[in-house]
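Intended use. Records like the one below are meant for learning the mapping from a protein sequence to its folded structure. Do not use them to infer anything beyond what is encoded.
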Amino acid sequence: MAHDHHHHIDPQAGDFRVGLAIAVNLGLTVAQVIGGILSGSLALIADALHNFSDAIALIIAFAARKIARRPADAEMTFGYGRVEVVAALINYTTLAVLGIYLVYEGVMRLIDPQPVAGWMVVIIAAVALLVDLATALLTWSMSKESVNIRAAFLHNLADAAGSVAVILAGAAILLWDQTWVDPAVTLLIAGYVLWQVAHEIGPVMRILMLGSPRGIALADVLDRLSTEPGVTDIHHAHLWLMQEHQAALQAHIVVDAGRWGQADDIKARLKTVAREAFGISHTTFEMECSRHACDAPATVGG
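Structure written out for the chain above:
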């Protein structure tokens, strides 16, 4: 069964939407910070900082998209596509730092409560909710193709959830004068941010650590390739993601001595099988005659 791990998309698609999302998020951040200071709401400032991190994430992602389009050269022989993965790691790392900071501030405010202007909190958070949802819509379709844009999309959904929580905190202050709800909501937002980072940073690290693509088992690939006529063994195999959507396979292929004259045809056939059955677009095979194959090789790595 084929696995589509290489998506053909317009490299210029979505730049305007990303730029618009950046502008909207920066404007909202300024409004939330001002509102948080005037109202005394830590939760509103927390939501603003999260919003600002989204804008920064989008800026980094936007720059990375531009760099990733550069063709391969003598310095970067595999091209620049992995810069988007590096950008995603930067985004998640800074988001983790922000989440930890919000936990600290929330705990300090629980210890030393401050007065909060409930109406201003509710109004600004309601505007933020609308903007967060609009920004999420701008990046939704693109989030399916890019780890960077997906991170930004998820951040905006988290912002929307944070805005709902801030509205509830403002309502609690207005109705029951419960100021402790504001730092409590801050801690909830921080917890959600940290959970999000823990959930999403794994696939980014997997790519940077040259891990195998999710959904493709190396054992299945080797078993399938080994069934091709003339192949007696496969070893020193490496399966990894060159970029987010480009899987690569490298291996030594042992060819039966009686079919060594067909080595080139066997290699071409194996490349076709890897591409069509598993979506592996980049393959490098070192062909060995069974009479002169590696001595006691490891199947994986080596």
